[in-house]
Amino acid sequence: MTDTKTSLPEVRERIDSIDRQIQELISERANWAQEVAKVKGEGLSAIDYYRPEREAHVLRMVVDRNKGPLPDAEMVRLFREIMSSCLAQEDPLKIGYLGPEGTFSEQAVRKHFGHAAYGLPLGSIEEVFQEVAAGHADFGVVPVENSGQGMIQVTLDMFLTSDARICGEVELRVHQCLHSMAGKLENIKRVYAHAQSLQQCKTWLRMNLPGVECEAVSSNAEAARLARHADDVGAIAGETAGKVYGLKTLATGIEDRADNTTRFLVIGRSLFPPSGNDRTSLLITVNDKPGALYDVLSPFARHDVSLNRIESRPAHSGKWQYAFFIDVSGHINDEALQGAVKDIEQSVAQLRVLGSYPVALP
Ligand SMILES: O=C(O)C(=O)C[C@]1(C(=O)O)C=C[C@@H](O)C=C1
């Protein structure tokens, strides 16, 4: 890009000139976003301007155009922030998540909605569903699955009793750290963490802190908060939580699996149009009778709809009734999926479309 003779001041001058152009273009973009808002109607609330399918489309174009050197995920992050700021010109979105500040859920909120959205830390996953249903939060972000630990049952069960819709998914690489106030591994007598995180770091704990007492608490950030008050207490939490609570980091990357990833769902109150690369989540309740699962699954094959995941839970509607959480490729408006749903409805107790939403971006 530069020949060896280019001096540092020359390179910086070039960077300054690019920054001026980028800044002008960002301002121009923000003006156009205001124009879009005018078309949608003035004086509406943030949620009425938000278009997840359009955002996913914009970000996919960013990925397609990316020629490096920045990785796709970085480019997506930068453009996500630009869109977040453009949208917040009206009124920032309010997003509920499992708090306190510093949780992986908060990181997922930032990954999906950017930093211009207003984060509402809540006490539990149940509360996130309640605050969204009550309209106190526009959307909520809840963990649903970990690559090593499987499904998060509290989240699935909330769909059995609430009308929440799924409007998006976020995948987050989860890097766990051990933090403490004193910063000395040999002092640690007890480790606090969320139960899932203790599971994710089982091998590391056995090898490095054998015999140390491990206690599950409501979130990793809560563990970090508790660790502030004693020198012999360690907390497993992400890097951010360690910083937020002023702890020293004793070890990083202590998760047993290198690809440790948590999938989060964005929950809201309505369905959104197709983005071009979508997933649909269905909740199907069946009675315990021979061939029940076959009757649910065979229409997908017949209509050429690919099944991404299936999870069963006891339904709350009756004894020996089962609820299947099924994710398939495509949007509920797609002809193939409509056909499959119509066939399934003939044989099941209940079928509810939880949502159709853009497949997670990098
Ligand atoms: O295209 C729109 O509908 C817009 O409102 C603009 C824009 C953007 O900045 O690109 C902003 C917010 C929406 O969530 C989607 C996209």
Automatic annotation (TrEMBL):
Protein source organism: Rhodanobacter glycinis
Q: Name one Pfam family in it.
A: PDT
Asked if the record carries the keyword DNA-binding, the reply is no
Location comes to: Cytoplasm
In Gene Ontology terms, what is a biological process of this protein? L-phenylalanine biosynthetic process
Reactions performed catalytically: prephenate + H(+) = 3-phenylpyruvate + CO2 + H2O; chorismate = prephenate
What are the residue positions of the site described as Essential for prephenate dehydratase activity? Answer: T262
Domain spans labelled ACT: 281-358
Q: Which residues form a coiled coil?
A: 8-42
Lineage of the species this protein comes from: Bacteria, Pseudomonadati, Pseudomonadota, Gammaproteobacteria, Lysobacterales
Q: In which pathway does it act?
A: Metabolic intermediate biosynthesis; prephenate biosynthesis; prephenate from chorismate: step 1/1; Amino-acid biosynthesis; L-phenylalanine biosynthesis; phenylpyruvate from prephenate: step 1/1
Return the protein name: Bifunctional chorismate mutase/prephenate dehydratase
Using the record's annotation, list all stretches that form the Chorismate mutase domain: 2-94
